Amino acid sequence: MIKKLKNQPLGWGLIGPGRFAREFVDELREIEDAELVAVASRDSRRSAEFAKDYGFKKSYGNYEEFFEDEEVDIVYIVVPHVFHKALSEKAISAGKAVLCEKPLTPSVADTQELLTYAWQHNVFLMEAMKTGFLPAIKKAKEWIDAGRIGEPRLLKADFCFQGPTDPEDRLMNPELAGGAVLDVGIYPLYLSRYLLGEAKRISATGTLASTGVEESVAIITQHANNSSSAMTCSFRTEEAMDAVIQGTEGEIVIPKFHAAVTAKLRQDGRVIESYRNGSGGMVTAEIKAVTDTIRAGHTECPGHTHTDSLELARMMELVRNQVLATS
Ligand SMILES: NC(=O)c1ccc[n+]([C@@H]2O[C@H](COP(=O)([O-])OP(=O)(O)OC[C@H]3O[C@@H](n4cnc5c(N)ncnc54)[C@H](OP(=O)(O)O)[C@@H]3O)[C@@H](O)[C@H]2O)c1
Hints:
By secondary structure, the protein is α/β, with parallel strands linked by helices. It is built from nine helices and 14 strands. It folds into two domains: 10-128, Rossmann fold; 132-282, Dihydrodipicolinate Reductase, domain 2 (2-Layer Sandwich), CATH 3.30.360. The longest helix has 21 residues, at 306-326. The radius of gyration is 20 Å and the shape is globular. Bound molecules: NADP nicotinamide-adenine-dinucleotide phosphate.
């Protein structure tokens, strides 16, 4: 467990100065209770450059020295999915709290093993699923729970974009657990579970890329409260990536739901209430929740628990197996 004085900010270390790391750190560096301590890469030049660009104190060209750095309290892991488990375990065994990018691991078995590892070491671990921390998404849940759309019946959500075609790219490469489900399908699956509850039944079909990873996938889920979800994810089509939740007395529209900024409540074809997030971007609320949890001495964040990660892993595995079986 991290013991840090209230007047000392938490020391952050980052592994994987790549595509998403930049977006994350743009917001992390605005957080008062965060000190940018160290960056680790396989390439010392890349980590040094990243550290200089964003104001980290130190950089490492290997992971071993990074894990020994006593100023690092929390490790943010932002590398391809297949490396999440081993790196999280190394960080945990060094006594560091871990925020690991989604998906926590590519399989249910590995996710379970990693969660158990964190639990046995009594160290904070969270999958970086930003969506449920966003105020606009919380507002949508509040509207549903308050009966503002009546009985929820149907959720529609997509995460589709024109992705890379290079077979070596991590999204296309099976060796790096590429494929649309683990990378972006996780978002609509997350949203449907968050807003409608556990899925009783999941059906999926889709097409595979030439490399064998899922390229385009359609998913239908059925939930206990008599509601359903219809979702898609793809690297080959361009969609608005909005979510709509329709109920017996109204609907909620969430533009670009995975990084939601606004949510609208509609009844009889009219917007009757609009909500917009306050300050902070797409990961600020998540970072603050992680900080608060660690400060409170807890090892699991109530906003995205270990059970949540495991259930998400179960949904994704089921979907991927069905796509493989039907394509
Ligand atoms: N939460 C979100 O909104 C969000 C958004 C995008 C991505 N993500 C997640 O973040 C993770 C990284 O995504 P990304 O798009 O940032 O990845 P990326 O740019 O392809 O790679 C990130 C870093 O991982 C390391 N890496 C790449 N390939 C590697 C390999 N074959 N072996 C070892 N290390 C390798 C590299 O670091 P070095 O070369 O410097 O060692 C690279 O800079 C993924 O798990 C993804 O799901 C989350």
